Each structure stands twice: as C-alpha cells, then as structure tokens.
C-alpha cells in the first residue's frame, strides 16, 4: 500500500506544482488582488497561450484523478477482490 501512496503523492505534487505555475501565469492579473489563481483565464492571443491553458487544465484533472486513483480506487479494488476471494474460499 505504501507504493500506491507514494505514486499518488508524486502525481499530486508534480501535477499540482505544474498547475500552480501555469495558473499563476494565466489566472493572475495582479498580485495585489485577492483573486489570485482563481480568476477567469486571461485571453491568450497566441498558439502558445492556448497550449498553456490547455496544459493547465490537463494538469488539474491529472492531479485530481491521478491522486484519487492511487489513494482510493486501487486500494478499494484490492479490498473488494480480497473480500470476494475470502468469500469464495468459505
């Protein structure tokens, strides 16, 4: 179980850091405002801005779903498989 935890933590850390870097570029108009990282995405006029916003959204969902998979879904599946195996053995 420790390997699933560290894999989920690695995904959460790396994906979260990537998202925060991109969000600070595209979702923060001013560092004096209280709406940092949660503003609407600033309009990007170039292809690189569009790719950055797309990568930011992808990293967000990768972080959430990756951590959820390794911390909840895989252990839950192993518990269910073990319970079914024990039930068949009886």
From TrEMBL:
Q: Does the keyword Membrane apply?
A: yes
Domain DUF7314, by residue range, is: 1-87
Please name the InterPro entries in this protein's record.
DUF7314
Membrane-traversing stretches? 9-27, 47-74
Q: Which UniProt keywords apply?
A: Membrane, Transmembrane, Transmembrane helix
What protein is this chain from?
DUF7314 domain-containing protein
Lineage of the native species?
Answer: Archaea, Methanobacteriati, Methanobacteriota, Stenosarchaea group, Halobacteria
């Amino acid at each position: 179980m420790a390997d699933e935890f560290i894999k989920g933590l690695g995904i959460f850390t790396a994906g979260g850091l990537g998202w925060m870097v991109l969000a600070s570029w595209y979702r923060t108009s001013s560092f004096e405002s209280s709406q940092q990282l949660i503003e609407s995405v600033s309009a990007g006029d170039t292809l690189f801005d569009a790719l950055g916003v797309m990568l930011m959204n992808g990293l967000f969902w990768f972080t959430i779903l990756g951590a959820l998979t390794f911390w909840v879904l895989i252990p839950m599946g192993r518990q269910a498989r073990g319970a079914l195996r024990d039930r068949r053995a009886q």
